[in-house]
Structure formats: C-alpha cells, structure tokens
Design brief:
614 residues, alpha/beta, ABC transporter transmembrane region fold, Rossmann fold, 3 domains, 6-stranded mixed sheet, 4-stranded antiparallel sheet, 63% helix
C-alpha cells in the first residue's frame, strides 16, 4: 500500500490575487474536453463496462469454489459429468471476464488519448500566446527560469488531472457502490456497514492529511522554482561569472537554495510516510473485521467456503480502488496546484490590449506625432515631461541626449510596449491615436534596430529572415549586403547556416547589430526606428552602413536615437533631451549656432575623436 513519493509536485503558491478555486480550474478545463464529447462518452462507457466486469469476477470465482467442494460433488453424484462441466463453464466465464476487463480498459485509453493530448496542446498554445500578448513590463519583472518551470509543471499536470477526473473518480465510486450493494443484498448488514465505515474513515483521513501536506508541497515547489531560476540566471550570465572568477560563489548560492529545497523535500517525504502508515492501519482494521465476520458465518453454517473467498476477493478488489482513491485525491490536489499558477498566468491582465473599436492602420506613408506626452514606469519617478514633436511622412527626426534622458522610451511608447500615462498626452500616426489602432497593424508598420540586439539560437539566415518570414533566400542575401554583413557571412564555414548561439553570443556586438539592421531592412516598413543602430560598429563599417541607412531611410518616416552626433547631422530636425524634456530642437547648424547643450556635446565628442591615444 506504499504510494510513490515521485508523484508530480504541486506548483508554488500563487501570489495574492492570483489564486484560483479548484472548481474554477475544472471549469476552465471542461470546454477543452467537451470539444470531443463523443470520444469522452465512449471512453466512459468502456470504463464502466470494465469496472462491471471486474466486480463480476469474484462472483464467478465463488460459484467455482462452491462447485468444487466435496459437498457439491456428492449432491451431483447421479450425474458424473456435471462436476466437470460446471467448473469448466465457470472457468471459461472467469477467463472471459478477466480478459474483458483489460480489453475495455485499453479501448478506453485508445479512445481517450486524443482528447488528453489535444487538450494539453490547446492549453499550452493559449498560455504561449497569452505570454506574448503581455506587456514588456510583465516580462521584465518575471524571472525566466521560474516562469518556464511553472509552465512545464502545469502542462504536465493537465494530462494527469484530465485522466484522474474523467475516468478514475467515477469508476472508483461505481465499483464501490456495486460492491456495497452486493454485500448488503447477499449477506448480513454488518459486512456493508464495516466496508462503508472503513471507506468513510479512510477518505476523511486521506483528505485531512493531504490538505496538511499541500502547504509543504507548495513550499517544495517554491524552492524548486527558485533554485531553477538561480541556475538559469547564472548560466545565462556565463561570461560575467567567468570575468569575475565567481564560479565558487555561484555554486555556493545554488547549493544554499538546494539545501533549503532538500529540507522541505524531507519534511514532505516524512508527511507522506505518516499518510501511508495511517492508511495501512485503517485498511488492516477493516479487512480484519470483515474476515472475522466471514469466518463466524462459515463456522455457523450460514456461509460456504465460496462465500468467504468472495468476501476476501471483494476486500482485495476494494483495497485497490480504495488505495487508489487516496493516491487519486493527492494527485488531483497536486495537479490542481500545478495548473493553478499556469492558469493564473492566463488570468494576468494584459496591460496593453487592443481597444474594442480598434482599426487597422492603412498602408502608406505615416506621419508620427508626439503630443504633450507624459510617461512614468513607476508613479514615483516620471520619465517624460510634455514631450511634443512631429515626424512628417518621409521625414527624419533625431533624438540625442545623455544616458537616462528618456530617448529609448520614445521608441518603446511608439511601438506600444507601454502606453502613455492616463491624461498624459497621446501619440498619433496620420492623426489617429495609436491606442485606437490594432497592435498588429501598428507594429507591422514599424521596423526597429534596437540598441541591445538579442538573436535566436538559430542560423544567421533564420535571424535575418525573421524580419519577414516569407522572404526568399535572395531577399535575405540582399538585406545582408545592404547591412554590410554578406562578406563576413560567406567567409564562415557554414555560411548563412551558421548558428549564432544563445542570444547570439557567438557573434560580436557589431556582427549582431548588422544582423539586426539587415532584419529591419528586410521588413521594409513605412516607419523606421534606429536606436543607437551603429553604436557597436567600428568607424569604417559605421560610415559604410550609415550611408546605406540614409538611402534606405529615404521615403520612410524615421526616428533616429543617437549617441554619436556625426551620424545625425543630416536629420531634418534634431531634438536634444535632458531629464525627459526636450531642451533644444532644430537642424545641426541651428543647434550649433545656439551654442547650448547640443554645441557642448558636439565639442566634447570632437575633442574625444581627435585626442591622440597615449
């Protein structure tokens, strides 16, 4: 009656406000199952048939035992063949019922397997899509290791929960009801009473102890997720660990987390042993009382040897589902807890969502306007203050300023990674507030070369083609040539099939940035954002790409966020930002004539460029 301690562990306890009731979780699962209602009903029919055949086996076995007793043989001495024919018929029926139990069980699995796997697939897809629909703020605040572990445990638990709830609870209850009915009808009431009381005590004990263990299991999973997060974070920052010779420090931090997990796991295992001991004791008492009543019945002549074998077989047969009921409750509780946080992710509010009346942005040239825009990532610290400027269709506007002045925030707001503060102005394209446009059409119209380029762990071709997944190999190569990347790629042993590694770490900063430029050029949208697009390039390559970017930008509405002022001299308008405010605006010549912040930055950069290296 030992239960495996290797059962799936429950997910960590969700933060306040995200906990779901078990009934809510089951309601959420129901539509996925009911989509295959005929398969579900057929599987349930096979299941109930299998349980009915299973309960009939002890009845046949009783008749077989009675037919083979000496008393039965003496009564049938007039017909010498009868004692042979009857047992042979019963044996055939016994074998047929045994086989039918297994057959119907396997037929149930065959019919229902598609339902389970399809449900897992659909739910996993919805979680994946929902995570992509959540805001950048959500993903910056989450830790990837813990998030992936929550999803992994949740999807794994779906199959278990569906299996247990659909064709384990019902057949177990059906089998118990059949056995109790047979005992009550064929024998004295004491048999049914002992069985019912044993069941009640067993179930109550299991539920109470399992609820106590749930807190311990949640603690185990919290620590498990924390350890996994710490390990992944350390491995993602492999180079930083090496730079500072902190392998030992990382190992100690990981081991400290694993030590806490170990202590919690030990407490969970001890509680499982307490549960097993209590269940074994309850079953032992119930079986002993049943066999005592059966033995008394045989001794008094009210029951045959077949009857005592029947009672014993029923108790063994009840022992299995009864034992499974204890495991079942624990597994369902654990599975519900596993799924709890994953469904909680699906309940997470989408900070950036399409307006119900949102419309698609029509194709064509785009005029971008920031109107008195105010924004803060945190209410306690405002980032932008009354930012107001216009980028005419086909025009080029550059933004410069010190680090932290709010330049990159402009790109994030235009891309709707965040929305401007309530009452804090608006951003429009062709006169329409971007909050009234569908996100898909808005982002289709914008191409961006980010300051920090992150690539997929795939080939160079794949990463460039990601800008427009329908692009041909010739178009990918043309974009690569435009980004001054082609000559580098063809010198690689695997060419465009070269794998770039996790986050593109196999490439240098400049190579990654050229891939990002090629990707944006391949997309060819009406609005372009260059966020420090050439910051990681050497001067020669920067000049070559800069001239290419200027050609590409012609006819496109372009926002350039720059550090090197020499790259934006030809912009139609240059905005100088400081502490989230536009402090100067004008052309390169006009700003130099003002002899203000821009002129000081220009002089400082010129001095740095021409200062001889010691």
């Amino acid at each position: 009656m030992r239960h495996s301690a290797a059962a799936p562990l429950p997910a960590p306890e969700a933060p306040p406000g995200t906990r779901r009731r078990d009934l809510d979780t089951l309601k959420s699962l129901f539509p996925y199952l009911w989509a295959y209602k005929w398969r579900v009903l057929i599987a349930l029919t096979f299941l109930i048939g299998a349980k009915g055949a299973n309960v009939t086996v002890p009845l046949i076995f009783k008749q077989l035992i009675d037919a083979l007793t000496p008393a039965a043989a003496m009564q049938k001495s007039a017909l010498e063949a009868a004692p042979l024919l009857v047992p042979l018929g019963l044996l055939a029926a016994y074998g047929a019922l045994r086989f039918s139990t297994s057959l119907l069980t396997e037929l149930r699995e065959i019919v229902f397997s598609r339902v389970t796997q399809q449900a897992v697939r659909r739910i996993s897809m919805q979680v994946f899509q929902h995570l992509h629909a959540l805001s950048l703020r959500f993903h910056l605040e989450r830790q990837t290791g813990g998030l992936t572990r929550d999803i992994e445990r949740g999807t794994r638990a779906i199959g278990s929960l569906i299996s247990y709830t659909l064709y384990s609870i019902l057949p177990t209850l059906v089998e118990m009801g059949l056995v109790l009915s047979i005992l009550a009808v064929k024998y004295e009431a004491a048999f049914a009473l002992i069985t019912a009381v044993t069941l009640a005590i067993y179930i109550t004990f299991t539920v109470v102890v399992t609820n106590w263990r749930t807190k311990l299991r949640r603690e185990v999973n919290e620590l498990d997720s924390a350890a996994n997060t710490r390990a992944i974070d350390s491995l993602l920052n492999y180079e930083t660990v090496k730079y500072f010779n902190n392998e030992g420090f990382e190992a100690r931090r990981y081991d400290e987390q694993m030590a806490r997990w170990q202590r919690a796991q030990e407490r969970s295992q001890v509680s499982l042993s307490y549960l097993n001991i209590g269940q074994a004791f309850i079953i032992a008492i119930g079986v002993t009382l049943m066999m005592w009543r059966a033995t008394v019945g045989v001794a008094e002549g009210r029951m045959t040897l077949g009857d005592i074998v029947l009672v014993n077989a029923f108790m063994i047969q009840l022992y299995i589902p009864l034992n499974f009921l204890g495991v079942l409750y624990r597994e369902i509780r654990q599975s519900l807890t596993d799924i709890e946080r994953m469904f909680g992710l699906m309940d997470t509010h989408r900070e950036i969502a399409d307006d119900p009346d949102a419309k698609a942005l029509p194709p064509g040239p785009c005029e971008v306007r920031f109107q008195q825009v105010n924004f803060s990532y945190d209410p306690a610290r405002q980032i932008l203050h009354d930012v107001d400027f216009t980028i005419p269709a086909g025009g080029r506007v550059a933004v410069v300023g010190q680090s932290g002045s709010g330049k990159s925030t402009l790109a994030r707001l235009l891309f709707r990674f965040y929305d401007v503060d309530s009452g804090g102005g608006r951003i429009t394209i062709n006169g329409t507030d971007i909050r009234k446009l569908t996100q898909d059409s808005l982002r289709t119209a914008i191409g961006i070369v980010p300051q920090d380029t992150v690539l997929f762990n795939d080939s160079i071709h794949y990463n460039i083609q990601y800008g427009r997944v329908s692009a041909s190999a010739e178009e990918v190569e043309a974009a690569s040539r435009a980004a001054q990347l082609h000559d580098f790629v063809v010198r690689l042993p695997d060419g465009y099939d070269t794998k770039v590694g996790e986050r593109g770490l196999k490439l240098s900063g400049g190579e990654k940035q050229r891939v990002a430029i090629a990707r944006a050029l391949l997309k060819d949208p009406p609005v372009l954002i260059f966020d420090e697009a050439t910051s990681a390039l050497d001067s020669k390559t920067e000049q070559a790409i800069q001239s290419q970017l200027e050609q590409v930008a012609r006819g496109h509405t372009t926002l350039i966020i720059a550090h090197r002022l020499s790259t934006i001299m030809d912009a139609d308008q240059i905005l100088v930002m400081d502490a989230g405010r536009i402090v100067e605006r004008g052309s390169h010549a006009e700003l130099l004539a003002l002899d203000g912040a821009y002129a000081q930055m220009w002089a400082l950069q010129a001095q740095e460029e021409y200062e001889p290296v010691a």
